[in-house]
UniProtKB/TrEMBL annotation:
InterPro entries: GcvT/YgfZ/DmdA, GcvT/YgfZ_C, GcvT_C, GCVT_N, TrmE/GcvT-like. This is Glycine cleavage T C-terminal barrel domain-containing protein. Residues 27-277 form the GCVT N-terminal domain. It holds the Pfam family GCV_T.
Length: 389
């Protein structure tokens, strides 16, 4: 047991959401390395400020950053019926998913609404992790299991991921693990140790850049792991950082609760490839998604170019979109991209106004601002950067 002193009691008071918000194994390291602000993600602190967000973006796209994303909690599913149960949760066909593979999936409810858009990892034949976006899928999965009649165990393991992202991330990984790590393919994983620290490493990440996620399997060694990675990365310009809003919007990547929620279905997002309503396997939302596919959708997600002075920060509320004085949608995520030298955004609009080139307006106190529907993703649409080793 840790001996409390007045000094470390005062330290405990430095950040004060309360004990209901958990600190990650990397929390102290991120503060030591300059984290100045935090948000909450899956009931955990997550660093959101290491200084200038534009500099964080350039660090990511030019060199590499290390991000504490332990808030991506894992739902662990094991047991003889694990594969069948996981398939029950998602409309994506998992019948050919191999051990050691990762897949981006959607988790849907009975109405076809999206509850989460996690990464699924298959560690063994009957062993899965669901690496979560920000919503309580542990409770959903445990609730489904009560009446599913399947032999599964569901819980949250001692697993805390880091993201090492950027063009130099491969060099850092070679320094840590040797040349053999370069054989790890995009969206595959490997069980590995670093000086006795147990890890799962995957070629995934929330940046659309070359990147890796390191899933720590022993929370007592978080500080040690952080320092080892930062030391290995020093010759390659590695900086501490946070997930980049600029880069993820450039890449058209979703932020759950912003760009999608329980009232959004996959077809509205153009994610038909993640839905197979005709597969033999049953999954939650199957009938609803068959019906939506047949009837079509009344709104779609689009990319926008917003013609105004550079935004100083991402939007903190949904902005209405209008056409001829009528509200036809909303801006869900907007930011200024210094690389593209324009304001870019993801938005949800009525289908009849979703065509490329459509001009819409955002009402502001100083008058309407023009927003033009454009192709998304805004940069590297085929993800050649992330896929290339």
């Amino acid at each position: 047991m840790t001996n409390l002193t007045s000094a470390n009691i005062e330290k405990e008071d430095d950040f004060g959401f309360g004990t209901q918000i958990r600190k990650s194994p990397y929390f102290d390291a991120t503060v030591r390395w300059g984290a100045k602000g935090f948000s909450v993600y899956n009931h955990m602190y997550i660093p959101r400020d290491f200084g200038d967000p534009e500099q964080n973006f350039w660090n990511l796209v030019n060199e590499a950053i290390l991000c504490d994303v332990a808030g991506e909690r894992q739902v662990e599913i094991t047991g003889p019926d694990a594969a069948k149960f996981v398939q029950c949760l998602t409309p994506r066909d998992l019948s050919e998913m191999a051990v050691g593979q990762c897949k981006y999936i959607l988790i849907t409810n009975a109405d076809g609404g999206i509850l989460n858009d996690p990464i699924l990892l298959r560690l063994a034949e009957n062993h899965f992790w669901i690496s979560l976006a920000d919503s309580d899928i542990l409770l959903w999965a445990q609730g489904i299991a009560v009446h599913a009649g399947m032999d599964v165990s569901i819980g949250e393991p001692d697993v805390s991921p880091l993201q090492l992202q950027g063009p130099n991330s491969g060099e850092v990984m070679k320094k840590l693990f040797g040349e053999g790590i370069m054989d790890l393919r995009y969206y595959w994983l490997r069980e590995i140790e670093l000086d006795g620290i147990p890890l799962i490493v995957s070629r995934t990440g929330w940046s659309s850049e070359l990147g890796y996620e390191l899933y720590l399997r022993d929370g007592t060694r978080g500080d040690e792991l952080w320092e080892k990675i930062m030391a290995a990365g020093a010759p390659f310009g590695l900086k501490p950082g946070h997930t980049s809003t600029i880069r993820r919007i450039e890449g058209g990547m979703l932020s759950y609760h912003a760009d999608a929620d329980i009232n959004t279905n996959p077809y509205e997002l153009g994610m038909d490839r993640l839905v197979n309503p005709d597969m033999e396997a049953e999954f939650i939302g199957k009938a609803a998604l068959q019906r939506i596919r047949k009837n079509g959708v009344s709104r779609k997600q689009v990319g926008l170019r917003i013609d105004m002075a550079p935004l100083k920060r991402p939007n903190t509320r949904f902005w209405p979109l209008s056409k001829d004085g009528e509200t036809v949608g909303k801006v869900t995520s907007a930011v200024y991209s210094p690389r593209l030298e324009q304001n870019i955004a993801l938005a949800m609009v009525a289908t009849e106004h979703a065509a490329i080139g459509t001009e819409l307006q955002i009402p502001t106190a100083s008058g309407p601002v023009k927003a033009v529907v454009v192709e998304k993703p805004f940069f590297d649409p085929k993800k050649k950067i992330a896929i290339s080793a």
